[in-house]
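Shipment paperwork, digital attachment
Item: protein structure file
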Amino acid sequence: MRKEAENWFKQATADLKTARDCLRTENYYACAFFSQQSVEKALKALFLIEKQETPSKSHNLLDLSLELNIPEEFLTVARELTPEFIITRYPDAAGGAPVELYDNSTAKDILEKAERFFAWIQEKIG
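Attachment content:
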């Protein structure tokens, strides 16, 4: 595996761990953010491996997924996770304090979707 791809995937793995830790410590908005980040970085690693080129600076998981011909079941997850990049961090994007938008159920759902997508990417990477 190319070193750049390895670095992206290593950070994706760390972000997934952080998401799990955030859920456990009831930092639900952060769990959602790091869930999104783990998938984004894993997709960028896969992009480097499959396309042999640097992915765009975009945070749009759907765009990355479409470029990689990701299966339809994960396109839905990509659509759902993409907004978490912004909404979890900015009150003006969230329409209030992001910390107030997430609870255990919401964060757990987001994390589970990210874990399934991440596992598929990991299997594809090998």
